[in-house]
Amino acid sequence: MRILFVAALAASLVVSFVSGAAALTLKPFKDELFAYPGLIAREDGGSRLVVDYRELRDINQRDEVPERRVKGEYVRLSVRSAQKDLSLKTAQGDIRHVAVGKPEGALAIVVYIHGQGGSRKQGVDDFTFGGNFNRIKNLMWENGGLYLSPDFSEFGPKGVKEIAALLDHYADRSPEAPIVVACGSMGGAICWRLADDPTVAGRLAGLMMLGSFTSNDFAKSAAYKRKVPLYLGQGSKDAVFPVDTQEAMYKRLKGANYPVRLVRFETGTHGTPIRMTDWRDVLNWMLAR
Which domains does the chain have, with CATH numbers? Predict the structure, then answer.
């Protein structure tokens, strides 16, 4: 009888685990429009992709006004009904941020950290960057998740404390939610510092670097020890952060059997990964782990 009981308990745990994992698989949203337009190379079982990016097609044919307003079929504006511009009082001061989706009981949390000259408004702009921010907003809303786009005072320690306080607030309200932090350009300074924070790293399900820089110290971080999945998206003609540094980091981590992906957008420039990264593909890879 004891053997039967243990077997039944094990079976129920497996069913419970599988059900939970299924709940964290994001359902499609305009996948056919946001899929990578073509692959030049696919290596390491799909961990390294070289995407055929072309400005004339992927900006000029996609946007009504190039780089300012995407065509209407790429967006769904009803998501604005789930969007709020908020201010959170914390020990680090008031943190202005935009929240889209479930502020409590979220199944997953995605946070976008803007780069130099940006603000919380960048990460919720429906029409710039080819409608890709509208897509992540809809993906989280449709799947019972929460998407956050915050302001912060600096890219140094104070800004990191502010973002950590924001994450702590929402993690307490959705304690089971895996958290993915996506950092654009200079926002990478926040991502790498968060990776070093044991409390934050313990909650992370993934880090996404979108046209950002690399870290020589990542292998010493709390996130590395937990094998938090890392995504590197980079344009091959990025004049701010050369793609060679991302290629080198990818090679080091892959050689150490670390969960890392690199998507190289051939001929893409600094903002290309924010426009072209397939949010659903990357997030489903991270959440599945």
Answer: 43-288 (3.40.50.1820)
